[in-house]
Amino acid sequence: MKTYKQAGVDIEAGEDLVRRIKGRVRSSFTPNVLTDIGAFGAFYRADFQGIRRPVLVSSVDGVGTKLKIAFAMNRHHTVGQDLVNHCVNDILVCGAKPLYFLDYFATGKLLPVVASQVIDGFVTACKQNGCSIIGGETAEMPGFYSEGEYDIAGTIVGVVDERRVIRGQHIKKGDVLIALPSTGLHTNGYSLARTVLLGKYRLDHQFVELKGTLGDALLAVHRSYFKAVYPLLSVFDIKGMAHITGGGIEGNTMRVVPKGLMLDIDWQAWKRPFLFDLIQGTGNVPEADMRRTFNLGVGLIMIVSPKHAAKIQALLRRKRERPFVIGEVTRSGSSMNLKG
Q: Which range of residues forms the domain containing residue 64?
């Protein structure tokens, strides 16, 4: 006789996880959430007061091989925040505010203590971004993942008034690119970073320039820009925005730039954080690869009319942000400032 538990699936562990997370997850609920944990579907009341033509905006993502750092350090409370914040930023640049988040957590052997830390990160970030975690799936699949490892993915759903959707169609020559700093690698480029750095350094290696260990720097939370940027959207005409993820500064920003236009980026406009110099120097990584793979210290870019640039930066500084102009929009065929 063979039981499901002997085959590697522990239903009791799943029930233990639900007990651990139930109170925290409920703490993220808004009055729009109509179901509790455990229902077959998650219900959210579509109440969009003040929005004349509501458009739902959704995004799905993962954390990638940054999880390998979390496994190695046995630190699991930050990757959930990474995932939520990444998804929030993706819909923010479309002009949307987040409503609710759903997660997927998969592992070979469910460890409720570990899974609850990850989910606690989801809850923390949802509350910080003013949205609710209303459902998810926990999958235990013996033999599918290496021991002690898991994968996570998440879906965010937000809303924006159709007349306020940000698509980039009004961007023109001379518009200014305002950048906001990242908090490190965020959730991109870890396959290259791990290959380069962990061949030479231990995760507990202390760097004065990093003000801590290499592992601490690599696990720095992918920040959300929602609280800093969303209030600006009702005051200024933000023509386009880009969340700088895989593909780098140019690759992501060009996604919202109309045909016939290009970017003139001043690569000397900001001091590149030490972590990126460490990766490049240790691995002798070509500059073109650095620019294509990493955010290089820039997490979000806003494209605005030059007449609004100073006021937008002033408002951001009042929120203790550190904005800076990174370049401008030019016509195709113009010489681009790619040297640095």
A: 11-164
